[in-house]
Amino acid sequence: MIFTRSAKTTALALVAIVGLFAQVQATQADTETLTIAGGCFWCVESDFESVDGVKEAISGFAGGKVANPTYKQVVRGGTSHYEAVQITFDPDIVSQDEILNNFFSSVDPTDAGGQFCDRGQSYTTAIFTEGPDQKAATEKAKVQAARDLG
Predict the structure, then answer these.
(1) Which of 34, 36, 37, 40 is labelled catalytic?
(2) Is residue 40 annotated as part of the catalytic site, yes or no?
(3) For 1-150, where are the E strands, in sequence order?
(4) Model confidence over 110-121: pLDDT tens digits?
């Protein structure tokens, strides 16, 4: 009888774990990511965390030629890294185009020396695309931003 209860408890726990795993996978499948650089990553992260539909905005470094650089290395220069933010969002709530429009509205893409009071290569703007669809959307957004600025 103890074995039966133990087996039922184990089976119930496994069903719960499988259900939770399936739910997490479904949630991850319903999101997209976009990685952008636009000056101080903490400022960019803060801007996007408040956008409805953004699930997560994580600061880090992108690009560059040094594996696992430190903050000091990047800010000092020479690593070619950008301070970047990876934005995970629900495309049913906020579109990739809206994210890109928000990005181009919050930075000065014409400033090659950085952003605002943050100067240096690590603070310049960039968009790191994942695949041809994201690259096409980014190019479209850049063209629109150039029109808006012109």
Answers:
(1) 40
(2) yes
(3) 32-38, 54-63, 81-89, 114-115, 118-119, 125-128
(4) 778 777 777 878
